[in-house]
Design a protein that fits this description.
Length: about 270
């Protein structure tokens, strides 16, 4: 899950962007809006049509004229493999509101359906000024807080994990090579299946039972249950190595002979 935290000055500009249908790209389609792109999921302390929303957001923001950037645009995007439902979106937004302290503020939840590669984006238009005229939504450490929130939601709701940007890591960890736990887990499952497989087809079936798809072309690739695709060679299991191990698996009697020979050598050397 990827989150973005953006401050602004105009509720009119943001609400119009979020609610209006998007124009297609390409000269032949410029006059045809992308119908159904925006889906309003919910309101909090606000109601009405587009003009009503803009007016109410603006009126409350003017209760604190010292706040030059009352507009907060928070967006969340999900991987296509994520099990996203409207109910789950509401749960995540409720937690977001608590973490960022806008539970009682005005906010609007909108889902966009204009990205084929993902489940779309969830956008929130939030008034940082509450109904009492106080700016109670802080912008301090906003990028780190947003990143931390996304990592927490990934773990809690089994969403596709995204590594936190290096700049959010402690200084003593920024130069250490990053480990992707998904890749390590996939490698262990492939290792276990390769050790028992009698053919590439058998390997494919064994991995399918673990939710992993095997793709054979010039080499081998594996796709986990969250659509992460990786080449076998990247995790130490190239097609050549796998086929070599399969030959050994088909002739298991050869392995104890080699093992016994090593044991004899050790005894003799003593």
């Amino acid at each position: 899950m990827i989150g973005k935290f953006i401050l602004g000055t105009s509720f009119s500009g943001l609400v119009n962007y979020l609610i209006s249908d998007k124009k297609h790209k390409g000269n032949d389609l410029l006059s045809k809006p992308m119908a159904g792109r925006a889906e309003i999921l919910g309101y909090n302390n606000i109601y009405g049509d587009k003009d009503d929303l803009i007016r109410q957001f603006t009126e409350v923001s003017l209760l604190n004229r010292h706040q030059s950037k009352p507009v907060l645009h928070l967006s969340l995007s999900f991987a296509k493999s994520d099990p996203i439902t409207t109910d789950l979106i509401f749960k995540i937004v409720d937690e977001l509101a608590k973490d960022f302290n806008f539970v009682d503020n005005q906010y609007l939840i909108i889902r966009h359906h204009d990205t084929a590669e993902t489940h779309g984006h969830v956008h929130l238009c939030i008034n940082r000024v509450n109904l009492s005229g106080k700016t109670n939504v802080s912008d301090s450490h906003s990028y780190k807080r947003t990143s931390d929130f996304c990592r927490k939601m990934e773990t809690k709701y089994d969403l596709q994990a995204v590594m936190a940007p290096r700049r959010f890591l402690p200084k003593n960890q920024r130069l250490i090579p990053r480990k992707d736990n998904r890749k390590l887990k996939l490698k262990e499952l492939v290792k276990e299946a390769v050790a028992k497989a009698k053919s590439i087809e058998d390997l494919s079936l064994r991995l399918a039972d673990k939710g992993i798809k095997t793709i054979k072309g010039r080499g081998l690739s594996f796709v986990d249950n969250k659509s992460m695709k990786i080449k076998g060679s990247e995790i130490g299991y190239s097609l050549a190595k796998v086929e070599k191990q399969i030959k050994v698996n088909l002739n298991p009697e050869k392995r104890p002979i080699v093992h016994d020979l090593k044991q004899r050598i050790r005894k003799i050397s003593r």
